[in-house]
Design a protein that fits this description.
Elements (H helix, E strand, L loop, with lengths): L2 E7 L3 H12 L4 E5 L6 H6 L1 H20 L15 H25 L3 E4 L1 E6 L2 E5 L6 E10 L3 E3 L12 E2 L1 H4 L8 E5 L3 H12 L3 E5 L11 H13 L3 E3 L3 E8 L2 E7 L5 E6 L1 E4 L3 E3 L6 H4 L22 E3 L10 H15 L13 E3 L4 E6 L2 H7 L3 E7 L4 H6 L5 E7 L5 E8 L2 H13 L4 H5 L10 H10 L8
Helix pairs in contact: 1-9, 3-4, 3-6
Length: about 475
């Protein structure tokens, strides 16, 4: 029987980063993955493929709508080759997952393909798709089994017309009318992909706003922009049935007054969140406790009730984000090695990769009000930047929230071009407990989108933004 210092079940961003860090720290490490490629949901059917399609569809939209404004004339009709677009997406995925395999080889990590399940607290049985099962022994075990798309009890996902994000990434045709249940990150990103390609898109959301977990100002601005892009929204609507007949899907929902609304489309994307995935883990054999939501219960060190077993990523509490899982994977590896790492969960940024992009870190205005924290706010519009006008990306703003007395930055919320990258500036500043004035006094290259961060900081510091 092969023996290891650490065995990791699941090879998503949390799992593979944990494996690499364990190996770097001198531990004999194994990683177990049920699928034939490494990388988990993020690399195979999540973050990476969705960004590939977002980029491809963005290029198409620019060619159709904006090239002429830039003085670029293309003779004849611009056509979409969806098959080639999906093929390019898959090529990006393949290259990325092979990169993870390279990292496993480089760090001398043993990779096992098969479903890993607990035999007891120190032994994992690995059942491959074909062939005999085998058992390995490990002093420490990290559960990194991730999550799967959620649904609603009355919805039958046939994965043909009533689909999840996984199927939406490999459609063989452009929908005529895609109805999306859920106005969160995944639904909006994939909705924008197909809207750009020519689909009619309708988003049905139970809450009274989209991206409900983010600052209300971001929700309002993104709604305005997406409506301008002709995406339709039914907010405060409760879906009560989804029925498919041949190539048509009929959705019935009640509005906030209780009146029934009927929608008909050829595809329905169910995007109502994700659930922790522990199917087949046999957690009870190791004595691991799951909470009522199916998550693995852990302490502040991501340690389960069994001292040598840890859990990270989507399978534990907290935001279901790849970068959060990565931080947790590295942290657990260092804890096992006897170090004392730390994660500030308040400073894990959230991003929506629509265009304009949406990004945030720290507290929202709603959270500060609820907590009774006295704060000040500074906001700067992207349209006031020379760089934004040059690229024709004038939607959005940057908002900085700072403590009214100390001026410490408490939250940064932005929507606009390249905000997914810009948010790192805010995270860095907040990690060092910067004040709004600190940011306002830092030189920002001109012309850049990042100047909006400096200007918002100036606005939060005695309302002295320079360019509005």
């Amino acid at each position: 029987m092969n023996q290891y210092d650490v065995a990791i079940i699941g090879s998503g961003p949390g799992g593979y980063v944990a494996a690499i860090r364990c190996a770097q720290l001198g531990m004999k490490t194994a990683i177990i993955e049920k699928y034939s490629t490494l990388g988990g949901t993020c690399l195979n059917v999540g973050c990476i493929p969705s960004k590939a399609l977002l980029d491809s569809s963005h290029h198409y939209e620019d060619a159709v709508k904006h090239f002429e404004d830039h003085g670029i004339e293309i003779p004849g009709d611009i056509k979409i080759n969806l098959e080639k677009m999906i093929s390019r997406k898959q090529a990006v995925v393949d290259q990325t997952t092979k990169g993870i395999q390279f990292l496993m080889d480089k760090n001398k990590i043993d990779v096992y393909e098969g479903t890993g399940s607990f035999k007891d607290a120190n032994h994992i049985t690995i059942a491959p798709t074909k062939g005999k099962s085998q058992t390995i022994e490990a002093k420490n075990i990290i559960v990194a089994t991730g999550s799967k798309p959620s649904s609603l009890p009355f919805i039958k996902l046939d994965k043909e017309r009533v689909i999840t994000s996984t199927e939406a990434l490999k459609l063989k045709e452009i929908p005529s009318h895609m109805i999306i249940i859920g106005g969160g990150v995944i639904g909006l990103e994939l909705g924008q992909v197909y809207k750009r390609l020519g689909s009619e898109v309708t988003v049905v959301e139970f809450m009274d706003r989209i991206i409900p977990g983010m600052d209300a100002a971001l929700s309002k601005e993104l709604l305005k922009v997406l409506k301008k892009q002709k995406v339709k929204f039914l907010l405060s609507h409760k879906v009560k049935s989804v029925e498919r007949t041949k190539n048509e899907v009929v959705i019935k929902a009640d509005d906030k007054k209780g009146a029934e609304v009927v929608l008909k489309g050829d595809y329905c994307l169910v995007s109502v969140g994700r659930r922790p995935y522990t199917d087949g883990l046999n957690a009870e054999a190791a004595g691991i406790v799951l909470d009522k939501m199916g998550r693995v219960e852990v302490n502040n060190h991501l340690q389960t009730n069994i001292p040598n077993i840890y859990a990270i990523g989507d399978v534990v509490k907290g935001a279901m984000l790849a970068h959060k899982a990565e931080e947790e994977g590295a942290m657990v590896a260092e804890i096992i090695a006897g170090q004392k790492p730390h994660i500030d969960y308040n400073l894990i940024p959230g991003v929506v990769y629509t265009w304009p992009e949406v990004a945030a870190v720290g507290k929202t205005e709603e959270e500060l009000k609820e907590a009774g924290v006295e704060y000040k706010s500074g906001q700067f519009p992207m349209r006031a930047l020379g760089r934004s006008r040059a690229s024709m990306d004038t939607d959005g703003f940057v908002k900085i929230l700072a403590d009214k007395k100390t001026d410490e930055v408490l939250g940064v919320h932005m929507i606009g071009a390249r905000c997914a990258d810009l948010i790192a500036e805010a995270v860095t500043a907040m990690e060092f407990r910067a004040s709004a004035e600190d940011i306002s006094r830092m030189s920002h290259a001109h012309p850049t989108y990042a100047e909006a961060v400096k200007e918002a900081a100036l606005a939060a510091t005695d309302d002295r933004a320079l360019h509005i």
